[in-house]
Specification:
This protein is of the alpha/beta class. The chain folds into two domains: 77 residues, no CATH class; 190 residues, CDP-glycerol glycerophosphotransferase, C-terminal domain (Rossmann fold), CATH 3.40.50. The protein has twelve helices and six strands. Strand 1, helix 5 and strand 2 form a beta-alpha-beta unit. Helix 5 runs parallel beside helix 7. The longest helix is centred in the middle third of the chain and has 15 residues. It is globular.
Length: 272
Amino acid sequence: MRYIGAVRRSRTHLLHLLVESALFDESQLVVTGYARVDRFVNGAEEAATRVRGELGVPDGRKVLLFGPTWRQADEATSEIPFGCSVEAFASAMSDLCERLGATLFLRPHRHTTLFHPRLCEEMAEAGERYPHVVYLPQPVYPETNDLLLATDLLITDWSSIACDYSVTRRPTVFVDTPFPVTHAGEFEMIPRYGDIAGSLPHLLECVERGLDLSPEDVEARQAQVMEIWYGSTLDGRSAARYDRVIRTLLDTGRLPGGTIEPVPEPQSPTGA
């Protein structure tokens, strides 16, 4: 089972990180890429159009997503940043959305819906009170990757969702909240490649500035995290590499070393 857990490592950099942390021996690891983001490469534009339709987002309207990490046992901080109440945060963001022609989706971590129901109730109430704020937890809309495809700008803290979203090459704004105490060993694996907002007014400025960034500016900011997390594996075929590695493991009892290439796609017949 430790083999299967290790197969999904995205990049040689992360492979070395896992070895150095003594979690795995190098013989247990192989670089395949990260299949979760395959759909961001394969048919992403069509999927984004479908999702926006499902969510009732009109053409031309911007989608902002607030997706914080789970604070776990860290009771000193909240997923709502800067010590704000849900009410104050939602009110300020709704006013910003009014000016920008945008909608903010509040997306608490899936564990928050289980362990912090009162916070989620407050988010739901804010979604009913403010016209440009929508509460969208996983029980209501389970597929986070589809939601990311429809998002024009992500607001997050230390969540690894930022690494997934970087594949879209759209802007991310990070809120400057304390690192969750239970996540301390993951710091190096979550680089913050966008603007870091230190207060609610600063967040509003960063969001407005982020939506004005050119695709070239966004890609330049995200180049480092893209290299660390994906390297040359961002080709939409990581799932095929998973399949090939697992079949090799089942057939031989061993993992191949290095970066495994997927079986080539079958060529369409010519003629006729």
